[in-house]
Amino acid sequence: WLNPLLQLGQKHRLEKGDMYSVLPEDRSETLGEELQRCWNEEVKKASKELWKPQLSRVLIKCYGKSYALAGLFEFFLVLIQPLLLGKIILFFENYHPDDQRSLCMAYVYAAAMSISTFGLTILQHLYYYHVQRTGMRIRVAMCHMIYRKALGLSTESIGRTTTGQIVNLLSNDVNHFDEITLRLHYLWAGPLQAMVIIVFLWYEIGPSCLAGVATIAVMMPIQTWFGKLFGIFRSKTAVLTDSRIRIMNEVVSGIRIIKMYVWEKWFSALVTEVRKKEISRILKSSYLRGLNMASFFASSKLIIFVTFTVYTLLGNTMTASQVFVTMSLYGTIKVTLTLFFPLAIEKLSETVVSIRRIKNFLLLEEIERKNIMLPLAEKGGNSIEIEKLTCYWDKSLDAPSLQNVSITAKSHQLLTVIGPVGAGKSSLLSAILGELPRDTGTLKVKGQLTYASQQPWVFPGTIRSNILFGRELNPKKYEQVLRACALKKDLEMFPDGDLTLIGDRGATLSGGQKARVNLARAVYEDADIYLLDDPLSAVDAEVGKHLFDKCICGLLKNKCRILVTHQLRHLREVDQILVLKEGQIMVQGSYSELQSSDLDMVSLLRRDEEQEQLSPFADPEKLSLQSRWTNDSHSSHCFLNCPLPPETIQTIAEETRAEGNVSSHIYFTYFTAGCSLLVLMVIVFLMSIMLYYLVEYPAVNQIPNYFFNIVLLCLLLGLTAAAVVFGFARSLVIFHGLVRSAQTLHNSMFSAVLHTPVSFFDVNPIGRILNRFSKDVSQMDSVLPITFVDFYQLFLQNVGVIAVAASVIPLILIPVVPLLLIFLYLRSLYLRTSRDIKRLESTTRSPVLSHLSSSLNGLSTIRASRSEEKLKKDFDAHQDLHSEAWFLFLMTSRWFALRLDSICSIFITLTAFGLILLRDGLVAGEVGLVLTYAVTLMGNFQWTVRQSAEVENMMTSVERVVEYTELKNEGPWETQQHPPSDWLSQGMITFDRVNFFYDTDGPPVLKEISATFHAKEKVGIVGRTGAWKSSLVSAIFRLAEPQGKIYIDGVVTSEIGLHDLRQKMSIIPQDPVLFTDSVRKNLDPFNQHTDEDLWKALEEVQLKSVVEELPGKLEAVLAESGSNFSVGQRQLVCLARAILRKNRILIIDEATANVDPRTDELIQKTIRDKFKECTVITIAHRLNTIIDSDRIFVLESGTIQEFDHPFTLLQNKEGALYRMVQQMGQAESASLLESFKVHYLGVRFPFSSSILTTVYVNSGSKCLNLYLATGSNTNSLL
């Protein structure tokens, strides 16, 4: 059934569509649910009877029976061949031309030998088929369970594990199940076969056989001990691999920040150090493997030498049949006991470690959802009732996140939660979702919840699939949601509309677009309660007003809504306001009730109210024009009446795959990467062949005569000892070289990934990159070296065997040549298809890891929308696709092996019958030699050919790693042309006709930008979300190379090294990124600042008290992605980094979007004081954060709309900035206009700015109007 596929593989490169569907009983869902059921029973039983649940017991229960039956297949047939061989040699020893009865018996023995060979071939491959399929099924079921568990982890459990560990479990640990099933049966079959063979040996050569058995007995415990050491090294290696993959995950996720902060070298050092420790453990394992392999090849020489020496010293004379029967029997026992048995122990000890790691993960606590959701029938007036609720994220470390909180939210009510950074606003939503464990108090939720997270979560796929999230498309409702979430205009800008693909982590969208897609997903869901965690921060005022009016108070008006926000201008329109501080409710009530409160936070509201009363009302005509403009822009054309185009299945661009043979360049790179030991290897090779020849030849040719010569005995002893020593040395040298190659290639790949432009990470999902760093590197570290060593040792052995056999009977070369040609033809036929399947297997594994990584990032969203089942189905679909490739890879290698073995069986049959037909003139010794070697050679020959094919298949992993080592680099980090030492003392930036592209084939996102930012100038950049404001930052930092020229202090940025450029500028990014390390390392990775500096910086960003409460203070290790800080606090850490760097240029990209107005005010004050002498570029949606800008730069669709002082721009009633200000609401827009006027006067007439400020404070706006009336004459005003 595989022939059509192999023929297809000859014609063209195989694609996913060419693969056969996975069998129904091998589907991920079927297998996973079955194993999960058994595991649940085990956990239940264990908790009842108070013992620890055992995953191994569950595996035996599920798969033990069918696996045990497979093991009985091949046990007995192995033993028959040596005895039949002895009978044929015996016929030649006692040969008499007239003895017809003996001749008939010889033919019977030859026939029996050929039948047993064919029988063994068929049964052996049936055995392999069953055990390998069992291994695959265990692995698939285990992956399903791990993913299912990851979706249900409680917040505390997430703190105990990392993405790196889960990825490692899913990409490396589970692979041990594929390996162990292949070897496990040898643990019982080995000793059992040995006992039977010892009986046969006793019958052949008497007590002398015990000498050889004693040699095996001495070697077995040593190899068993080696196996145990493997387990120890494996568990140590696994922890380091977890750590390395976790760092890689953080590097890929935060690559933009790492590049802008110039932190590549620090991360490089971090990964190199972990990798160094990992490699030292892998090297120890490899040395043990080398000794194991070498002892297998040396043992045959040693055992035969000891046995025959003892036999002859006891005064016995050996016959040819005794020699060859003994050698054949020892050959059988040798493979089982000195190769497969220790290998089984090695794999078992490694698998035990993996089972323990998976079991510990599966026993982590899951999120509890008890009493949270009440059935629909019980829905009444109140949707949420919370009474005296106290919650802790981690009771052992923290103060309570929420303390004594009592809230009631009615079914049509809008409840708004406000409060400073770290007040517990997001914690409140987490408690309602059931994510934050409840300590005391009651919490009742009536109805279906949905949630829009503060950090928008999007997954790779189309915009439409992100919004629908598995739900059915209702065109009318979908249109309403798009309009309510202000997405229509954005979708018109994309060539594919809502079928535009979103890259990994939403790379193709702006921050505001991601936030709106995230919100649209929640709004599209038909829920009863909407929890919205600060969705307005990432958007500009105009879009924010639209979202509030049309979505939160429009489309959702009849629902219960809890809105966390820092946008105080909307508070007048809400039903209830809740002010939180340090996890406690400071005050709650309606807007008017809060106005009369004395609370500090509320003073902001009161000020807002006063400004409202002071300000003159805006012109109603202008307002109506404005609202008309807004409505037009958001619904420029409506698709309500025309049907939406059906969503074609679009996926992220295919992962690249090589074609044809693995090129010689890949082999050369691999073998020369680790060492220049090629010359040494050649010498060792030659010695191996020579020694093999010298040891084999005297040992088998006319043995009885040699053994009486003591001198030759000593020579034999010397040669045997030399063969053993050189065997060990050769193995160690090669293992050392190959592991070092893996280390070098990994380091080169990591370095290339750090040097590649940011656009690479936008088009390649995180799972695709992690796949190469986990699975492919793991193949190079441990699987490829052992396969290669196995192949080349067998290759040398075969050369030795043919040389010795041909020297005795040259005619044996005649069938060897055609056999070799047939083997090579079959190999090329098999390899062309299997290589493609192996490459497909590698690329179909990436989506499994991408899906896991993406799901872990959006856990709270997934759980809130009850989408776990949908995501499990998606995961199972990815797994099934991988299983298709994996199963076909196993089956094609069975196809190849079966054909090779069948040809070998024919060869043995022809040899056996041929010898009897040509019986005249043949000596028993020669017959024994030819027959023994026919059997040995055939076994070895086909295994060598298979291993050579396996090496080529595994080289696809090297190929994939080498592909990443050759990634396109961004500009050089350092160039010969360094900028002058006093460069960037001013901070003047000039754009000269700059165009900026993210994709060389795509349209420019910034078009013909020409502008100058003067030294020490404060420039505000504003524009609607999706106006490519952040692209201006990318152009300055050269995250992609801009066209045109950007001058900084007269130096063209494209002519200097990237590090020279980037380290002279500071950035506070839109998405705050923290790494899993201490607070100190997150602030100052290169240890350039004193503790005093660090504390001062933390104090200036209002974080000193927070860090002082952490156990370990500056040395406290942050959780993955800094998740033990709120999003606002993470942005403050980024601000502290900028303060420490003291650069002349500071770029602030939406840095205070997630903080409350009071903290924002304090931060703005800090920035004004600290960066007085710096050029500050601020991208903001909150116009009050750029109130004191010298000039404002308005962007629309990547082009400059306006660029001047804000007061000047506001004189133009048709201008973009004026329209934005009007969007803020009457009070705030009037307040902003006043502030802009004051700042304008302060800049124009600095000598009088203090007087003007005083006048403004005391006399309100009348004075300014007077100033304008006097023709801007300052003296008249004074």
Describe the sheet with the most strands: 6 strands, mixed
Give the helix tally.
Answer: 45
Q: Report strand order across the widest sheet.
A: 6-9-10-4-11-12
- Low-confidence stretches at least 5 residues in length (pLDDT < 50)? 606-652, 693-708, 1246-1278
- Percent strand equals 5-15%
- Rg estimate, integer Å: 38 Å
Strands, count: 22
Structural class: alpha/beta
> How much is the average pLDDT?
75
- Helical percentage: 55-70%
Distance between the termini: 98 Å
Shape: elongated
Brief descriptors of the model:
1278 residues; alpha/beta; 6-stranded mixed β-sheet; elongated; membrane; lipid transport; ABC1_TM_sf; transmembrane helix
Question: What does this entry show, briefly?
Answer:
Pfam families: ABC_membrane, ABC_tran. The chain has 1278 residues and is α/β, with parallel strands linked by helices.
Describe this structure in words.
The protein has 1278 residues and is of the alpha/beta class. The chain is built from 45 helices and 22 strands. Strands 6-9-10-4-11-12 form a 6-stranded mixed sheet, with helices on both faces. It has a 6-stranded mixed sheet with strand order 18-19-20-15-21-22. A 4-stranded mixed sheet has the order 1-5-2-3, covered by helices on one side. Strand 19, helix 39 and strand 20 form a beta-alpha-beta unit. Helix 28 packs antiparallel against helix 32. The longest helix has 53 residues. The chain is elongated and about 125 Å long. The chain starts with a helix and ends with a helix. Its EC number is 7.6.2.2, 7.6.2.3. Interacts (via PDZ-binding motif) with SNX27 (via PDZ domain); this interaction accelerates MRP4 internalization.
